[in-house]
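Hi everyone,

Forwarding the result from last night's run.
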Amino acid sequence: MDENGVLIELQDVVYSYAGGNGPVLDHVDFTLHESERLGLIGPNGSGKTTLFHLIMGLVKPSGGTIRVFGKTMEKEADFVMARRGIGFLFQDSDDQLFCPTVLEDVAFGPLNMGKTFSEARDIARKTLADVGLTGFEQRITGKLSGGEKRLVALASVLAMEPKALLLDEPTTGLDEATKARLMTILKELDKPMVVISHEYDFLAKTATSLCSMKQGRLIKDSGLHFHHHIHAHVHGDDPHKHE
């Protein structure tokens, strides 16, 4: 974190797919502060997930600067250190879960960060309890429901005790009960986060501010309004529907 409380900062970042027609991200500026819970909206293909991948070092920009926790990201070793402090929830839980059992999946991160087997196991059990999955430790990951996988994936992220969270469409495919549980978990977390979602009602209950991604540009929305029936409209020009 820098002296102004900025955890993640992108300056003038450009990214294009090989053989693509124009940049996916077109000179994007972005900041996440230590007390911020930011909702990120925009149409499919607008570059939201690419923004996360750039922050995590999964793809490299063709221009611009990325800083994480006050350090400029210049080489892979920089991103390796940054990933230790950023919890990234993939859009597809199957991309995140690869161990045979739930306990092994959630303990993997702490083990990779140098915890002993006993410490990692205790952290995993506590984190599973925190997300309401006590008793799931020996369940086979591949046989879980979509909602259960989502919560296990979140637990695997939280077990690493990240300083900030990047959550890519966390509610996709969830039933209402699991979605409500996820919302409660996120509201109780005292962590800065960026949440990509198409669900305005969900963002209204979890985010404190919004950005919209359109045609490769990122726009910080000062026109966010929460109504008495708890949903958000941004400028009124982004079509959506309520559940």
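Residues 94-144+152-159 form one domain.

Cheers,
N.
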